[in-house]
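Here's what a typical entry looks like (Glycosyltransferase):
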Amino acid sequence: MTQDRADKSVSTVARTPSLSVQDIECVVTVPTFKRPDQLLDTLHSLAAQKTARPFAIIVMENEAEAHEGADAAAPLFADGTFNGLVIIAHQRGNCCAYNAGWETALAEFPAFRYLAVIDDDELASPHWLENLCATAEKFDADIVGGPQVPAFEKPAHERWATHPVFAPPYDETGPVAALYSSGNLLVTRRVLEAMPRPFLDLRFNFMGGGDSDFLSRARQKGFRLAWSAEAETQEIVPARRVERDWIRARALRNGVISTLVEKKKRADEGFGRLRVFAKSLALLALSPLRGAARLAKTGSISTAMYPVYVGLGRVMAEFGYANEQYREPEKN
């Protein structure tokens, strides 16, 4: 039976009958869009977690018309195979799906301590959730990130694993100064309760980067960040994502996001926008030297071009360029 919120932006389509909301310590949110088979693989990897912490899953379907992911998952929540609920976020966009899931977690589970995020093209390692929580407790961290290890559909593409688009930003567990992605993330309840709504800025809805912006703002508020190298997920990488135009588009997009996030960060500073523009110009000017150093180290032209495209993206953002890759999911 479908239950709608008062604002009609979110519908609940399935719920585990025996769900004990008061006992849930962790909530795992899984946004999904047109990947029903991969979603089920993700959910089975979550069901296999080795942890004593009671957890529930919230699937956020963002394809409100076909809702293939919700249709595939709903019976398995209704029969107790998976513990939690399936919702439909009717407003399209990456940020809308995340916001719907996080708001639902707060509304449905009054005692949860941790909220984790995993995408529908990822598989969680058996101790993934436990490692994220343990790292938060060990380092008194409010937000913990983990590596999304690329799993390429074609073995010949494994050479791309060290490319900056796919390589994790850190190698070792411990406190870090910045996190960039929500694809493998743990957020404490106190962060969600303190951050303004909507959690993810809808201006990033089809570009991506709403997570980077959220993490940047949380850091500005004084929340502590950490990295858990042991909390691995495997990210399935289709052949499309190692084509040169996709790599180039992602690098440009990363540059655009970097500028937009930094502009928001410096919005209240004197000459803040000018400082961001000056930094973008400097990074673009230095990018050929950085690229040459990467080429000498790796022998990869694509890796060498990455800082050049990021620098271009940063400057292009100053003139209104926005690479909204998520508007055409079949090309992403």
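Residues 3-242 form a domain with the Spore Coat Polysaccharide Biosynthesis Protein SpsA; Chain A fold (CATH 3.90.550.10).

More examples are in the samples folder.
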